[in-house]
């Protein structure tokens, strides 16, 4: 998705809340957000994105829509995931500062003014919350720490909590992001790749869950890691597949080629010096070399075909960070 340079924010603040089966918490959350933002004196909107809830969440949203004129809402026919819900919110928000938070009351709306200030006054492209003190079981905190460490190493972005739902963005940042799968965990990575690299971090309060139970299992870390590999690969090689497949193919071919040369040289050397000679084809190393050569050729051809496809009707996509 590219930034539409003609699109400008019409409000000061958008608060986006993806939700799934959170009927108990939403009235309290909406009232809390409205009270905090009212004290800030800024124009705002609250966007609820119902990700296919199976309880009475949508009925609650309809009541909130009647009570609070700033409420907007979208409802999915089924559960598509948090990334899809955030993507919907990003597409429709109109605030020059955009804040996302979870609907389970574990994120505190009292953090909104400071996050708003860091974007509006300090000029960060985005700010990620850091739940330094967490009220989660060890089965969740330990994998989370490992996940954050691996992501930080892979991306080069020094954050402690990539997956914190409480984040703030400039308007132009969210309009440059397209999310799917489990990509919401890597919004800082995507933002940096799009040229919005001024990323801050703020310690935020993590509150114990008041209603319901967590909607995420351990499988999210597996899916998240696969999505990290996908983001890294696509961002680097989407427009130049030959750089990836061609490099691996050339390396594999050269390894096989030089092993074959070594085997031929060894046989000739043994013949000259009247040493015991084995046929090249009698040696397992020869077949490994042959496999390496074949794989190398296939990888090179895959890169070549990928390059042809990438260049068909090629239209470069640019992320515009500023206009005047």
What does the model show?
By secondary structure, the chain is an alpha/beta fold. The chain has 2 domains: 11-236, Spore Coat Polysaccharide Biosynthesis Protein SpsA, Chain A, CATH 3.90.550; 241-311. It has helices at residues 26-40, 57-67, 82-92, 112-120, 138-155, 171-174, 187-193, 219-237, 241-272, 284-311; strands at residues 11-19, 44-50, 71-75, 95-100, 126-130, 167-170, 199-203. The protein has a 7-stranded mixed sheet, sandwiched between helices. Helix 5 (138-155) packs parallel to helix 8 and helix 9 runs antiparallel to helix 10. It is elongated.
List keywords for this structure.
alpha/beta; 13% strand; disordered N terminus; 7-stranded mixed β-sheet; Spore Coat Polysaccharide Biosynthesis Protein SpsA, Chain A; 324 residues; 2 domains; 10 helices
């Amino acid at each position: 998705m590219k930034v539409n340079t003609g699109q400008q924010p019409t409000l000061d603040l958008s608060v986006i809340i993806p939700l799934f089966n959170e009927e108990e918490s939403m009235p309290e959350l909406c009232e809390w957000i409205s009270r905090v933002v009212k004290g800030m004196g800024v124009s705002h909107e609250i966007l609820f994105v119902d990700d296919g809830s199976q309880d009475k969440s949508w009925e609650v949203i309809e009541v909130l829509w009647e009570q609070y004129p700033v409420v907007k809402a979208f409802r999915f026919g089924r559960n598509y995931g948090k990334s899809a819900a955030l993507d919907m919110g990003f597409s429709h928000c109109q605030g020059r500062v955009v804040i996302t938070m979870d609907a389970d009351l574990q994120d505190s709306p009292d953090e909104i003014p400071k996050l708003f200030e860091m974007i509006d006054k300090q000029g960060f492209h985005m700010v990620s919350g850091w739940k330094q003190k967490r009220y989660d079981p060890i089965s969740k905190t330990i994998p989370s720490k490992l996940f954050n460490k691996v992501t930080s190493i892979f991306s080069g972005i020094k954050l402690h909590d990539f997956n914190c739902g409480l984040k703030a963005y400039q308007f132009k940042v969210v309009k440059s992001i397209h999310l799917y799968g489990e990509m919401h965990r890597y919004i800082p990575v995507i933002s940096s790749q799009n040229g919005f690299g001024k990323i801050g971090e703020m310690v935020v309060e993590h509150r114990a869950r008041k209603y319901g139970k967590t909607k995420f299992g351990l499988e999210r870390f597996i899916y998240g890691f696969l999505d990290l590999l996908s983001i890294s690969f696509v961002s680097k090689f989407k427009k130049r597949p030959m750089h990836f497949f061609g490099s691996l193919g050339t390396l594999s071919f050269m390894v096989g080629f030089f092993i074959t040369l070594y085997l031929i040289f060894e046989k000739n050397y043994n013949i000259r010096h009247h040493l015991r000679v084995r046929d090249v084809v009698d040696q397992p190393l020869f077949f490994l070399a042959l496999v390496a050569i074949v794989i190398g050729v296939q990888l090179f051809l895959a890169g070549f075909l990928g390059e042809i496809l990438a260049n068909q009707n090629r239209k470069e996509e640019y992320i515009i960070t500023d206009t005047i």
